[in-house]
Amino acid sequence: MTAAEPPPTTRPGGRTARVREAVLRAAGDALAERGFDGLDLADVARRAEVGKTTVYRRWSTTTGLIADLLTAMAEDSLPRSDTGSLEGDLRANARLVLRTLSDPRQAPLFRAVIAAATCDPRTAEALHAFYATRIAEWAPCVALAEKRGEVPPGTDAAEVVRAVSAPLYYRLLASGDPLDAAAADRAALAAATAARAGVYTV
């Protein structure tokens, strides 16, 4: 596959926005059902009920389509919670990750994208950008905790946020252990406890 142009950074309006929404929804459905190898632009166009020419002209390749899908998912993610405590904020983050990874549509979609990213540099780049956006959204909860004196000065906020979701992705992709509220809350508690102990200071 050839590299596609990067997706637009602003949301289009009117009919363009409706077409993008329909195509990305169709792409997500196809990924969840068939995986990366089964993703086909013509099939996506059929599912979205738009012309093939429109899809090929705007996204060019399946990789470019996945990149835009991840961009849209980052844009549409729920905003960061502010519960007033580090553990509460991290628990909210863990519950959000849990909701995504246990969703009947989202879970297989993420499996497909992550699998594709292991062998396709463009998909990997898009996936890294997606997670960078999500980490940047939640990192301020650690900065606020530092101001409140909950964690030592110099705590690496991004590392704390990564520590919350990592055990949940491990369950999804590697161990097959249950993904449930207990696992999410335990991941949040472990990350908060480690942060308070200075494990993530730089």
TrEMBL record:
Q: Which InterPro entries match?
A: Homeodomain-like_sf, HTH-type_TetR-like_transc_reg, HTH_TetR, Tet_transcr_reg_TetR-rel_C_sf, TetR_C
Binding region for DNA: 40-59
List, alphabetically, the PROSITE patterns matched.
HTH_TETR_2
Keyword NADP listed: no
This protein's UniProt keywords:
DNA-binding, Transcription, Transcription regulation
Start and end of every HTH tetR-type domain? 17-77
Please indicate if the UniProt record lists Membrane as a keyword. no
Gene3D superfamilies attached to this UniProt entry: Homeodomain-like, Tetracycline Repressor, domain 2
Q: Per its record, how is this protein called by name?
A: TetR-like C-terminal domain-containing protein
